[in-house]
Amino acid sequence: MLKFATNRSKKLMARSSQEEKWDLIEDIDDAFQKWEQAQLQFNMAQGQDEVDYSIFMLEAAEKRLTMLLRRAKHTKLRAHYYVKVQG
Question: Does residue 1 register a pLDDT over 80?
Answer without folding.
Answer: no
